[in-house]
Design a protein that fits this description.
By secondary structure, the protein is an alpha/beta fold. It has nine helices and eleven strands. Strand 2 and strand 3 form a beta hairpin. The longest helix is centred in the first third of the chain and has 14 residues.
């Protein structure tokens, strides 16, 4: 937990009993499940509280069945290629911790010395993540104001989350590694065909990021078969178009008992370019 900094004064936080305390005595209690809330109300915004219980449960149930296990394996292997002992890894926008905890288990299987941390705006998601793996340390916080010191991370992971270049650049060490996962152009194309009259491809943006050098790009593509409506519903609730779907499309989704669709991801690995 000594990785995190105070969101008020930016001083280092240290564990005292069951709280994190800075040198200015700003105190943040550690929840029973193990996470700490470092999100200030002015950082959260009026209506932004992250994923709710239903959304977290849907994603947890879907991911626990292994539908995205190939992505987890690919991500873990990518992290391993750039991993060094005593490495500090941050998952920015970690959600319920499926990938965070999975990478930790993969790396520590070889008894490597690693410290992994996760930050997300959803208390509900981190409640589950922290219970699942006590060795990964989690904090409620915004990825646009990460509660971590300058140049404190060796590797930063971000999967399907908003991208904040300035913050990622700030917390990464010199020669730090950024690993980003995005959906490919045809990700979930079969699902879109089943639900929408006029399906559309995902918009894949330019890979160039100011201040970062692209080192490698890995595509993971496979056919995914889902044979029950609950898993299909859970998958759909994980997508950004869940909130933009009309009544007619929702009825189609509710009657869908079998689905064959492409799953496609891109793992992009960058190295920070700092003078």
């Amino acid at each position: 937990m000594d990785f995190f900094i105070c969101p008020v004064c930016k001083e280092k936080l240290c564990i005292q009993n069951k709280s994190l305390v800075c040198s200015n005595n700003h105190t943040f209690d550690i929840a029973k499940s193990g996470y700490v809330n470092l999100l200030l109300s002015k950082q959260a915004g009026k209506n932004v509280h992250g994923d709710n219980k239903l959304m977290v449960r849907a994603r947890r149930d879907f991911l626990s069945k292994g539908y995205y296990s190939r992505l987890l394996t690919g991500l873990s292997e990518t992290v391993k290629r750039y991993f060094k002992n005593s490495c500090t890894i941050l998952d920015a926008g970690c959600g319920e911790g499926y990938y965070t905890n999975g990478v930790y288990e993969f790396i520590t299987a070889e008894n490597s010395d690693v410290n992994i941390y996760g930050v997300d705006i959803s208390k509900t998601a981190l409640e589950y993540a922290a219970k699942k793996c006590k060795d990964v340390k989690y904090a409620v916080g915004s990825i646009f104001n990460i509660p971590a010191a300058n140049e404190s991370c060796d590797i930063l992971m971000t999967l399907f989350a908003p991208f904040c270049r300035e913050e990622f650049e700030r917390v990464l060490k010199k020669d730090g590694i950024l690993i980003m996962v995005i959906p490919s152009e045809r990700h979930l194309w079969g699902l879109k065909q089943a639900v929408y009259d006029t399906p559309y491809l995902n918009d894949v943006k330019d890979y160039d990021i100011k201040g970062f050098k692209l080192l490698e790009r890995e595509k993971i593509t496979y056919e995914m078969i889902i044979d029950n409506n609950q898993d299909i519903q859970n998958l759909f609730s994980m997508t950004p178009y869940y909130y933009k779907t009309g009544k007619k499309e929702q009825e189609r989704l509710a009657n869908l008992e079998n689905l064959k669709t492409e799953a496609g991801f891109e793992i992009l690995t960058y190295k920070i370019e700092r003078n």
